[in-house]
Sequence to fold (248 residues):
Amino acid sequence: MMEPSTQSEDLCDARVIHPDRVERARLEIADERSVERLAEAFGILGDPTRLKMLMVLRKGEMCVCDIAACLGVTESAVSHQLRRLYDRSLLRRRREGRCLYYRLDDEHVSELLQLGLEHVGEMK
Amino acid sequence: MMEPSTQSEDLCDARVIHPDRVERARLEIADERSVERLAEAFGILGDPTRLKMLMVLRKGEMCVCDIAACLGVTESAVSHQLRRLYDRSLLRRRREGRCLYYRLDDEHVSELLQLGLEHVGEMK
DNA sequence: TTAATATATGAACAATAGTTCAAATAATCC
DNA sequence: GGATTATTTGAACTATTGTTCATATATTAA
Fold:
């Protein structure tokens, strides 16, 4: 984890004041793929509607219209976001009759969510 | 932390299948303000450039042009993002001559970043 | 099969985000 | 002071995002 960045930029014309620090700090950048995935993971948590959806599902599975009712938004809007979360394996789902019940799947995201919730009160 | 949502939506015409679950799950939603802040916090970590900037600053302060050189992006682009991070108190800065040295300030964000990095390898 | 229910999907739209470019500050050096 | 260096700022531009609306699919019930 956290291998040096493999991107060989054209630093030829880049202005640099402390080449040593730049060299050293560059190693702190995770590889491009990891950064991309990390950004995507955080990004998916960076929306109020999706956060509420995840919060609401912490206590157990729910069907689409109930989730929508919980948040006070359109079922269509919820469905679109559910799909995003489902596609990225943050949610599982199960059909029972005409209803689809969604539930949390990824414990990593749950952890991040929990940590965020614990800290948000202290955030400036 | 995690008080019931105060938003009194117009659920009049909302379709609901399990009113009890909706009622119960609704309490899992943090208050609107917290959700908003949490989303903002996650959102700021949801961009590759900003993530790299934070990673690069983990080992110590750096000036703008060096950060830009590290990431291989324009100084202007870095400056714009630095301002966002600075405005939200994620970074501090210090002037020395003509250079401005930025450094990490918020330990909460550092923690989130660290947790994310530890998990990103296992993420699907 | 037809009607009704529950959810998904796609196009369209407005809003937002990130980068670039040019120009403006700010601090130093001569 | 004027020139140079380091960074900031604002406007413009493109790309992306989240929602809405209308429609499509899927399951059940009659």
Chain A touches chain B through 70 residues (CB under 8 Å).
